[in-house]
């Protein structure tokens, strides 16, 4: 299991849920084109707003250009957060993608 335990789940206004997880990137190539595409595809299945944060910058995880612009490399620590009715499910699916693709680890 990656260093990705659910950091936070809380109810926000209008019954939206906010959830986030921290990940340590272990993939030798970091989050390059192929894994970025897979993460964007996983995030795009959900209605929640989903963001990837790295080095104080946050981008929409549904945007391939945004994800690629961060230049996340091996050894990076990132946070993925989601806000919306399906936030917890989104974080779970993205976590599964990170693990399955060997992007994140302990």
Automatic annotation (TrEMBL):
One Pfam family matching this protein: PTS-HPr
InterPro entries for the chain: HPr (IPR050399), HPr-like (IPR000032), HPr-like_sf (IPR035895), PTS_HPr_His_P_site (IPR001020), PTS_HPr_Ser_P_site (IPR002114)
Gene3D superfamilies reported for this sequence: HPr-like
Database matches in SUPFAM superfamilies: HPr-like
Subcellular location: Cytoplasm
GO annotation terms (biological process): phosphoenolpyruvate-dependent sugar phosphotransferase system
Keyword list, A-Z: Cytoplasm, Phosphoprotein, Phosphotransferase system, Sugar transport, Transport
Listed GO CC annotations: cytoplasm
Stretches assigned to the HPr domain: 18-106
CDD domains: PTS-HPr_like
Family, as annotated: Belongs to the HPr family.
Its biological purpose: General (non sugar-specific) component of the phosphoenolpyruvate-dependent sugar phosphotransferase system (sugar PTS). This major carbohydrate active-transport system catalyzes the phosphorylation of incoming sugar substrates concomitantly with their translocation across the cell membrane. The phosphoryl group from phosphoenolpyruvate (PEP) is transferred to the phosphoryl carrier protein HPr by enzyme I. Phospho-HPr then transfers it to the PTS EIIA domain. P-Ser-HPr interacts with the catabolite control protein A (CcpA), forming a complex that binds to DNA at the catabolite response elements cre, operator sites preceding a large number of catabolite-regulated genes. Thus, P-Ser-HPr is a corepressor in carbon catabolite repression (CCR), a mechanism that allows bacteria to coordinate and optimize the utilization of available carbon sources. P-Ser-HPr also plays a role in inducer exclusion, in which it probably interacts with several non-PTS permeases and inhibits their transport activity.
NCBIfam families xrefs: PRK13780.1, PTS_HPr_family
Record protein name field: Phosphocarrier protein HPr
Native source species: Pseudolactococcus plantarum
Lineage of origin: Bacteria, Bacillati, Bacillota, Bacilli, Lactobacillales
